[in-house]
Structures are given as structure tokens and as C-alpha cells.
Amino acid sequence: MGASGYFRLERSAGRCWFVTPEGHPFISIGLNHISSFSLRRPGKLDDFLARYGGEEGWIREAVVPDLKDWGFNTIGWTQEIALRYPPQDPFKRLDPPDARRGWGGRFALLHDRPWEQERYSWAGMPYCHVLNIVAQAYYYDGSVSGLGEGPHYPDVFSPWFEDHCDQIARSYAATMRDDPNLVGYFLADVPDWSGEVHGRHWTRQPDGTPHPDAQERLAAIAERYFSVACGAIRRYDPNHLILGDRLLGGRDLPHCVLHAMRPHVDVLSVQFGGDFAAEEPQLAAWQAVCGKPILLCDAVMPPQYYDPPRQKHRGEAYKRYLSAALANDSIIGVHFCGAYLEAEPRGWGVRDADGVADPDLVAAFREAHAAVWDIVGKG
């Protein structure tokens, strides 16, 4: 395939691939939510520092050996849930509660800080970085500011938005531009383009009724958002892929958004994960509009997909999902919604609150990942 020095995309042997800087075909098998947040809480921080000396020792001595042993080749989205709370935003309060989660009624989430380049360098593995251009995710609360978040529903036509995107790109893309381990940049996590929760500020009048030209407005907003954000990234980093928004499967996504992203992003990134056969038609429909290979950037295996909710069943679900997803020649990667360590707001992790890895889940990872190349071929 030929070396280029950075990750790129190519279609070869009948399917889409990432291609490594050295020129080898690459399917991104990632783990998300890799955070030491739960180890840095009162009562545990002293033990964390005594054992690892800090973040660098933890990443080098614990995280990387685990990822490689379990068969993961990519560091996905690193931020972990830090807080779950009743929403303060009146729009978020109207969001229908998700009974599947078992978290009770309506809720909002905040995450801890994303990794910086220093932490990625300690890991020395391929990684995908989230820039958090906007904080418009379904789970966010517009009344509360979280660490590392962008604006909630900005005026994308203002000069301020240009300056905002430039500042983010200058802070991250300008420093990461020469890193061969960087796969690419996500813009934001599951932004609400449908107007179901937060995006209604872009499509509705002050009294809550839709603008008569709501779709035209949304198309113009999407075009401006992608052109300004991606333009800023490419201004500082012409070397790496733009992985787009981490879109939420199973929700409505206006096709005008997919049209708008087509000339600006390289990958269609979607958070999905449960029954790939049921999800595949929506993925195909979205891909037909935007024309990009698909990264399943947050493959979720929550309790609604098996009964009872035990790690063994989670692992079995992951094996089924990975096998089915990679049989589709447009899928270039699957990132598992960890978390690496159990954190109280999420309630589970590959390693529990005491740091013990679940043997059934780890065995499932090893088995599933050992079969990846048999499924996709050799490129």
C-alpha cells in the first residue's frame, strides 16, 4: 500500500481500510474511557501514587500492557464519566428518560478531562483524539459547564466561532501534527443534530415552535460548522484524518447534515452496538449520503442487550457484534465502550473498583480479537 508517514484511508482487496504510517492495512480495534479518574479519588490517591508514581507510570505499567494483552490496537475516546446528576437545563428535562440504562429518570453526564499529547506519548500506541468543538451531546446539560467542553449551541456564523475553532486547532492540531501514532480527530461526541434535545435552539423559535425554514437553517448551520471546524484543523495539521462527529446511531439524523459533512470529513463515525444486523440498514443509509467508510467509535454493550447483565454475557455480545460488524467491508474499526476501570457514575469496567480484571470479559476480548484478520482478510 505504500508508506506515507501518517494514517490514511484506502480501498483494497474489496474493502475499506485504515493504512498505517508504514503502509500496512489496519483495522482499528479500540478501547474507550481509559481514565485514572476512579483511582484518584479520596482514599485511593495515595495508593495510586505509591504504586505508579503518577499518570505516566500507570499508563506505561498498567494500561498499555493490558491493551496489548487483550488484543486492542488503538486508544479510543479517553474521557470517562465523572458525574451523573439530575439535569438543570429545562430542555434536557424534557428529554424522555432512557429506561434501558437502569439509572432511574432523566440524567445528565459530565466527563473528566481528555488525554493530552503527553499521555498519548507515554502510551506509544495509535490513538484518536476528541477535540470537543461543541458540547451538544444528548447527555450534556446546557446549564452546567464541564471540564474540557466547547460551547453548547454556538452561533456558528459569528466571528467568535471562527476564533474558537482556531484556538482549539492551534492548541491540539498544531502540536499533534507530526505524531505518527495519531489516527485522526473527532470533532464532538454525539451532538444533537436532530433537535430532539439541545439542537432545538438551532431549529426552533423562542416559543418552541419550529422555524418554517428549519431544514434550510439546519443545512446552513451544518455546512458552516463543518467547514469552519475542519478548516481550522487542516490549517494547522494537513497530515491527519478528520473522523467527524461521533454520531449517535438509533436517533434521527437529518440528511442535510450528512451532505454538509461530506466534503470536510474523512470518516463516518457512529456510536452503536448491540445487534449489528438491526443497525446495518441505518448505517448503509447514512453512508449512501456521505460516502465515507464507517468507524463504530463507541460500540456499547449495556445491560439491555443481554439478561442477566453479567460480564460473561457482555463478552459474548461483543464477540457476536465484532464478528458481524467486520464482515461489512465498509467498517474500518470498532471501539468498545469500556470502561477500562470501574467508575462509580458508570457502574462497571473491564477492571473493577479494586483493579481486578473480569476473566470472562478478558477471555472474550482475546478470542474476538484473534479472529479479526480471519474475518477481514489480509488486505
Side by side, the strands of the main sheet go 5-4-13-12-11-10-9-8
Low-confidence stretches: none
Q: For the report, how would you describe the main beta sheet?
A: 8 strands, parallel
Q: Can you give the mean pLDDT?
A: 87
Strand content: 15-25%
Which structural class should the secondary elements be placed in? alpha/beta
Radius of gyration: 20 Å
Shape type: globular
User: Percent range for helical residues?
Assistant: 25-40%
Number of strands: 13
Our count of helices gives 13
Please provide a written account of the structure:
There is one protein chain. An eight-stranded parallel β-sheet has the order 5-4-13-12-11-10-9-8, covered by helices on one side. By secondary structure, the protein is of the alpha/beta class. The protein starts with 7 loop residues before the first strand and ends with a helix. The chain has 13 helices and 13 strands. The protein is 35% helix and 17% strand.
